[in-house]
Write a structure and sequence with these properties.
The complex is a heterodimer of chains A (120) and B (151). Chain A is mainly α and 120 residues long. Chain A contains 7 helices and no strands. Chain A has one domain. The chains are: A mainly alpha (120), B mainly alpha (151).
């Protein structure tokens, strides 16, 4: 029970280090880095490798952006298992709806509440 | 001076980014964000009816809410400056991109400004996520149908 806090910290940190190496060594922009990480997460789930990582590291695997690619693929595959090829399209946002809806909702609310101050 | 010489000279003069230091900072900041999320997941598992697996959805939403507050008060910028990728890679970085785009474009109105630009920075992540998920799931489904692999 306690060990999940350690693995979460380490795995989450290591995924961020991979991102940092892409910034500094490969000289990629943040947008390119995040896109590559999302694609990596989705490919890993295709091989069935991301779910074991979530079991091992908890939020260390679900909080980095790689988990977004994973849950998109996961939803698509779960629907495809039930309904065949058409499920690939319809199931995509089944699992990951909370991240996108929270971002839209809180982003919109924030635009009422806060004044711009170069917050990028 | 020809181009090659210039490139060599430039490489010698440009200060190297302190790679190890940046990586340690990204590790600590990114790890801390994931650790905080683990405590939030514990909160949802203890006080609400969530399992270890289903707790990740409300946890992600809560992290984005925290990121909204930090972005609104101008504090997330500092997280990014200190942590580099440690601030950008977790879902809070995604939240920061959406929220800051919404706040910045408020002056252009709610429909054209906020609505039109809210995914200006984070949109590419969604596009590439959806496209790669589609391709991966399509390939896997076809392979299963052909009997090459199983679910």
């Amino acid at each position: 029970m306690f060990s999940i806090y350690i693995t979460s910290f380490i795995v989450g940190g290591l995924i961020c280090v991979i991102g940092q190496l892409m910034f500094d060594v490969a000289k990629l922009t943040p947008a390119h880095t995040l896109c590559i990480l999302v694609v990596a997460g989705s490919v890993l789930d295709g091989f069935g490798l991301y779910e074991p990582l979530i079991d091992f590291a908890g939020t260390g695997a679900t909080i980095p952006i790689t988990s977004f690619g994973n849950s998109l693929t996961h939803g698509a595959l779960a629907e495809a298992e039930k309904h065949g090829l058409i499920g690939v399209l319809t199931g995509m946002f089944e699992v990951t709806s909370s991240g996108i809806s929270a971002a839209i909702l809180f982003g919109f609310i924030a635009s009422f509440l806060f004044k711009p101050k170069g917050s990028l | 001076m020809d181009k090659e010489k210039y490139a060599k000279l430039e490489e010698g003069i440009t200060p190297k980014p302190p790679l190890l230091k940046n990586c340690i900072k990204a590790f600590l900041v990114g790890g801390t964000i994931c650790l905080i999320a683990q405590f939030i997941a514990l909160f949802y598992m203890t006080f609400f009816d969530f399992t270890e697996r289903t707790a990740s959805n409300p946890t992600v939403a809560t992290m984005i809410f925290i990121s909204m507050l930090l972005t609104g008060f101008g504090a997330y910028k500092k997280v990014g400056q200190i942590g580099g990728a440690g601030g950008a890679v977790p879902i809070t970085g995604f939240g920061n991109a959406v929220v800051s785009a919404a706040i910045e474009h408020r002056s252009e109105g709610f429909v054209l400004g906020v609505g039109g630009n809210i995914f200006k920075l984070a949109g590419s992540v969604i596009v590439f996520g959806v496209f790669s998920a589609f391709i991966v799931a399509l390939i896997k489904t076809i392979l299963v149908k052909m009997g090459v692999i199983s679910w």
